[in-house]
Predict the structure.
Amino acid sequence: MLLWAALLILDGWLAGSRGKLAGSSMSVLMLTFGLSVPVSGQFALPKPVISLHPPWTTVFLGETVNLTCKGFHSYKPEKTKWYHANYRGEKEEREISGNTLKVHEPGKFRCQVRGSPPSDPVHLYFSEGLLILQAPHSVFEGDTLFLRCQKQGKKKLSAVKYIWNGNTLYKSNKSLDLSIPRASLNNSGHYRCIGFTDKNHVLESNTKIIKIQELFPRPKLNATAFQPMEGSSVNLTCETHLHPERLDTPLHFTFFRDKGVILSGWNNSSELQIPIIWKEDSGLYGCGIETVTHSVRKHSLLLEISVQRIPVSQVSMETQPPGGQAVEGETLVLVCSVAEGTGYTTFSWHRENMKESLGRKTERSQRAELEIPAIRESHAGGYYCTADNSYGPVHSEVVTITVREIPSNRSNLMGLGAAGGLFSILLLLFFCWSWRKSGNNFQEEETRSPPNPASGESPWSICPAQVQLQPLYVNVQYQEGELVYSEIQTIWLRGEEEARASRTSLEQKRTSIVYSEVKI
Ligand SMILES: *[C@@H]1O[C@H](CO)[C@@H](O)[C@H](O)[C@H]1NC(C)=O
Ligand SMILES: *[C@@H]1O[C@H](CO)[C@@H](O)[C@H](O)[C@H]1NC(C)=O
Ligand SMILES: *[C@@H]1O[C@H](CO)[C@@H](O)[C@H](O)[C@H]1NC(C)=O
Ligand SMILES: *[C@@H]1O[C@H](CO)[C@@H](O)[C@H](O)[C@H]1NC(C)=O
Ligand SMILES: *[C@@H]1O[C@H](CO)[C@@H](O)[C@H](O)[C@H]1NC(C)=O
Ligand SMILES: *[C@@H]1O[C@H](CO)[C@@H](O)[C@H](O)[C@H]1NC(C)=O
Ligand SMILES: *[C@@H]1O[C@H](CO)[C@@H](O)[C@H](O)[C@H]1NC(C)=O
């Protein structure tokens, strides 16, 4: 204790200062020459922060500065430990109850709360000069930088001039203080002030080096993938870290592409999810971070995201109803699908040996349908489809479409009549044939006009009319007198509409009996 007191007196005497390290009454003061402050990193808690009241690091000799040690999230510790090093290199360490230390002497101060690493140091100056430039201990970008040009004594200055890095920054005879709103790192430098008194006395202050601190470094954009497959999801994050002293600063984030496309406006989420990314989404991506008060805003560098497209492959065509078996008059759907392939795909449907496509669709899909609302017999044939997602069309295999005639009451009747009915018709036909053959009402002309069944010319008005004689085999070379004709005759069943007569030949196949008549 004696040694401690002696050293304190010596300290005060050497410093030429009347100030003493005057903590709370319960203080346990230790002089710890050569004791190094524990290195940070081995502690669980973040560093505490010292705040100053008044906020200036330079005061006049004889004034008091209260240093307050604040734990994480401004938690107020019950006990604090203080480290002080004076400008002769002497160090001391003491623990106090509470967290405020009243200081009257210069030096470097750090504090520590239970279990935390020591704080960053605060340098305090107690000036004997007539004019001082006062600046806060720590200034972050975005903060307003307050500077005070302060004269000792009661008489005030009439005008001031602030010098920054050797240049006049500000001159005034009204406000003696200087405030620089939204300070940036650029505002760091050497500051001093010149004061003018009424009697035209010029006073010069000390020079203060002010370093504006970075609130958070330039953000970095990160993505879960920079060459994602088209159709996959990509998550973007905007990464930075706040200065430990300002961990509770609220931030907003934005994400954009190619400098113009805003993907997400200012928002409190540092992550952006792109559930499905398309090739069209390729580009340069960036993000921005700003404080909620807009005091600081920073943008990341742009990073390229290049979305990879999977070319189409294994194109296939299926039909509904399946197997290419269409029913006349009903809907046929041609479904074109690809096993692989992403993004916009152009599907197109073709009929074999036909130049023009039947239909075309561009969709962000692996399948597309073409509907033929009422298929006709003439539609029968080979069909295929192609798919193209910008690498050139890929063909499917050819599917043969057959068109079955619509099942109707005619066939039902025939079904009902069964073999017996069919036999009767054949019998009837045979009768008609033999009746004609016998010369009755048989017109031996090359083209016979159909007789009117109602004319009563024939007693067998039920016998079918002769419609036309056509060469049966078009390709057959025939000589005169050896003409081969096919006579197409239609048995119109009762109740059959006239319109049926205009049906395509395929329909007639079922209801007509075709036989050949060879004339010699
Ligand atoms: C410093 O703290 C003491 C009490 O701890 C208080 O009386 C005094 O007003 C404080 N000074 C300043 C400048 O805050
Ligand atoms: C303040 O300075 C301006 C010129 O810069 C001068 O016109 C004015 O008279 C001055 N006022 C006082 C009170 O000195
Ligand atoms: C700092 O100064 C540089 C050069 O004068 C300028 O390009 C930059 O925009 C300034 N930064 C800020 C934050 O004002
Ligand atoms: C970027 O994100 C990926 C995946 O989310 C992660 O593995 C990687 O460490 C991150 N890179 C950086 C620099 O943060
Ligand atoms: C993106 O984030 C969502 C939600 O956290 C997650 O479900 C998804 O798997 C992530 N995507 C990637 C590619 O990491
Ligand atoms: C942040 O963005 C998401 C997605 O854009 C949105 O759902 C959410 O409401 C936004 N939150 C705020 C606070 O703006
Ligand atoms: C974002 O903002 C919303 C609404 O303002 C809030 O509920 C949410 O807690 C915020 N999230 C973060 C991470 O700040």
About this structure: The CA atoms of residues 16 and 146 lie 30 Å apart. The pocket of 2-acetamido-2-deoxy-beta-D-glucopyranose (ligand 6) is lined by residues 264, 267-269 (CB under 6 Å). The first strand starts at residue 21 and ends at 22. The radius of gyration is 51 Å.
